[in-house]
Design goal:
With 480 residues, this protein is α+β, with helices and mostly antiparallel strands. The chain contains 9 helices and 19 strands. The protein has a 5-stranded antiparallel β-sheet with strand order 1-15-3-11-12, with no helix packed on it. The protein has a 4-stranded antiparallel β-sheet with strand order 7-8-4-10. A 3-stranded antiparallel β-sheet has the order 2-14-13, with no helix packed on it. Helix 1 packs antiparallel against helix 8 and helix 4 packs across helix 6. The longest helix is centred in the last third of the chain and has 62 residues. The two termini are 49 Å apart.
């Protein structure tokens, strides 16, 4: 509300006096709320940092599990132009020579007759049955869809299309275009059959079946499986150009045919690359890098916690940096304690107990981890224990990654993770304090209004007294 500078009757600074009283009334209450708000904000920020660090480590461990970081296999091809390779942890070390004898192909057919592209041209009617492998569809062609474009659209857009695509090729000849049918998937089983026995008109000429006599449909490309020979001994086929688990844990992607010798086929005999050598071996470098990343991530988490919970007795008592924002906090200490306990917990593999220290990782007195500094010695440890390291970390349910994920999730889970619950509690407290400050401001507005009115009433009373005193003085002077 607007306040006058001074009382009209008393000459007092009513506005100033009102503001001073309001300020004196407001300050201790506002200071208390502000102090609590700052404490909550500092704690919320600190818990956010801890949770972020815990979540970062949890994400890294989850990625380790997906990438098979501690038990991965490295697979190489000596000629990726012909064959590329990927391996999972299930792959076993070995060297193989691969001959690519045949690439997978889709089935392609082309009608011999030319079809008019005139939208008014009627090409026939009736039922056309198209089959690919063991799947089929039946198209009903009538007056509303018997032109060339409509027939092609009906094939391609059918809900029960068995995996065939129809396209048009304009050969440049008078009379129109030819229809081409091709399968969407490769392999010998995906062959096309077209039954037009229930059709009339030109569309009836599209009938096709393998071995059919006097067919008016040409086979442009036969349906074909891919074929490879492993070590000049075992021949394997696939409906597509990807071979999965032919060699356990290995995926082979074929690019093109390798050459042959003395096959009387000049197209392949003239190819210089006769085979592709693939090598599968333990990815020890990836394991070493993963161990280092794990140690660095853990130490980063411990560094964050140590900074937030630490206490420096050498600093002055009034130094704000003397104690961390979470100094003495039991929840944060719980993160550290439980993680250290997990690191010290042995894991059984093939009847024998192993610990982190068996793989070159030692726990220091300050709680941080240290990886064996001697690179050659660490290489030897990894080489000698490669399979065990993989099991130690990645063993289902009982491996370190599974146990760590379960532990960290107890802190970070959005619903009942202890850090998440703590954050939610602080956010509720933050809102409550904001509401308290809003209520205080409202009360102070009312208090200011009430105090100002009281001063005005006092000023009015003083004015009346002054008037009465003045009248009395005048009256007394008249007696003289």
């Amino acid at each position: 509300m607007g306040l006058s500078a001074a009382g009209m009757a008393s000459g007092l600074d009513i506005a100033g006096m009102t503001q001073q009283l309001v300020a004196a009334e407001r300050k201790p209450k506002a200071d208390r709320i502000t102090t609590q708000q700052k404490q909550v904000n500092v704690s919320l920020s600190a818990y956010g940092q801890v949770k972020s660090s815990v979540s970062a480590m949890q994400s890294m461990l989850e990625k380790f599990g997906k990438d098979e970081a501690f038990n991965g296999q490295k697979a190489t091809s000596d000629n990726s132009d012909y064959l590329s390779i990927k391996a999972t942890a299930k792959a076993k070390s070995g060297v193989y020579n691969i001959n690519i004898q045949q690439m997978a192909q889709s089935h392609k057919l082309m009608g011999k007759e030319l079809f008019s592209a005139d939208p008014e041209a009627s090409l026939g009617s009736g039922e056309m049955v198209i089959k690919v492998g063991d799947k089929s569809m039946t198209l009903n062609i009538g007056e509303d869809n018997d032109d060339l474009s409509s027939v092609v659209d009906a094939i391609n857009n059918a809900d029960d299309n068995p995996g065939v695509t129809a396209t048009l090729i304009n050969t440049g000849e008078d009379g129109g275009s030819k229809i081409v049918f091709s399968t969407k998937e490769t392999g010998e089983k995906n062959t096309i059959e077209i039954d037009t026995s229930a059709m009339t008109g030109q569309l009836a000429s599209l009938a096709y079946k393998d071995g059919m006599v006097d067919s008016k449909v040409d086979e442009m490309q036969a349906a074909q499986d891919a074929k490879i020979m492993i070590d000049n001994f075992t021949t394997v086929s696939s409906s597509n150009n990807t071979f999965e688990d032919v060699i356990e844990g290995v995926t082979l992607d074929l690019k093109k045919l390798t050459g042959t010798s003395g096959s009387s086929n000049p197209e392949t005999d003239d190819i210089d690359v006769k085979s592709v050598k693939i090598t599968i071996e333990n990815d020890e470098k990836s394991t070493k890098d993963s161990l280092k990343s794990f140690v660095d991530s853990y130490n980063s988490l411990m560094g964050t916690i140590d900074k937030l919970t630490g206490f420096d007795a050498d600093k002055e008592p009034d130094d704000p940096n003397r104690a961390g924002a979470l100094n003495g906090d039991s929840l944060t200490r719980s993160v550290t304690t439980q993680m250290r306990n997990l690191l010290n917990e042995p894991i059984e593999i093939n009847g024998k107990l192993y610990q982190m220290s068996d793989f070159g990782i030692s726990i220091q007195r300050d709680g941080t981890l240290e990886l064996e500094e001697d690179s050659d010695k660490l290489d030897d440890i990894i080489s000698e224990n490669f399979a065990v390291i993989g099991q130690f970390f990645a063993q289902e349910d009982t491996g370190f990654l599974a146990k760590a994920d379960k532990l960290l999730d107890s802190f970070t889970d959005k619903t009942d993770g202890s850090l998440s619950v703590k954050e939610d509690t602080l956010k509720e407290r933050q809102k409550s304090l904001d509401d308290d400050m809003t209520d205080l401001n409202k009360r102070m507005v009312a208090y200011e209004d009430r105090t100002y009115k009281q001063f005005l009433a006092m000023d009015e009373a003083i004015g009346q007294m002054n008037n009465q005193l003045s009248s009395m003085m005048s009256l007394m002077m008249s007696f003289d």
